[in-house]
Design brief:
Layout: E1 4-6, H1 26-38, E2 44-46, H2 48-51, H3 53-63, H4 68-79, H5 86-95, H6 97-108, H7 116-136
Antiparallel strand pairs: 1-2
Helix pairs in contact: 1-4, 4-5, 4-7, 5-7, 6-7
Length: about 140
């Protein structure tokens, strides 16, 4: 059984979103939920395997490929106009499109209905931006 946790100690001042524009106060709680889905830490649990065991197993495997810092950076990019760094894009693209889509699906299932279209579109935009960054990156 996999548990995804949310804990306030995972949120550092440098990752705080200061300009949320018209998205309102609910965006902060939505962002906390998304980061909790991406990062396994002590705290509040959401049991995804009871809803969908295959999705839970897949997300557990996906999580192993992304660092905590990159998970925060990528999730913050949903609500800002910042593109994730090349390093974090590399980690994100390495997880594969199926992992990205499953994280977005799980996140969408937890956001208010009025945010679903925005989050889905922004998720696609982030994937495409990261794919472009990796395609243009010099080969070491």
């Amino acid at each position: 059984m996999i548990l995804f946790y949310l804990h306030p100690s995972n949120f550092y001042p440098s990752t705080r979103i200061t300009n949320m524009g018209s998205f309102g106060k609910n965006i902060s709680s939505t962002l906390f939920l998304f980061i909790g889905i991406l990062i396994i830490t002590p705290g509040f649990a959401i049991r995804t395997n009871e809803e969908n065991p295959e999705l839970s197993q897949h997300l557990e495997e996906c999580h192993k490929k992304v660092t905590k810092r990159c998970a925060i950076e990528i999730s913050n990019s949903i609500y800002t106009n910042k593109t994730p760094s090349e390093y974090c894009c590399q980690k994100h693209i390495t997880t594969g499109k199926a992992c990205h889509d499953d994280f977005i699906k799980l996140f969408i299932s937890k956001v208010p209905k009025e945010k679903v279209t925005f989050v889905a579109a922004k998720g696609d935009q982030i994937w495409n931006q990261c794919a472009a960054i990796i395609a243009l990156a010099p080969v070491a």
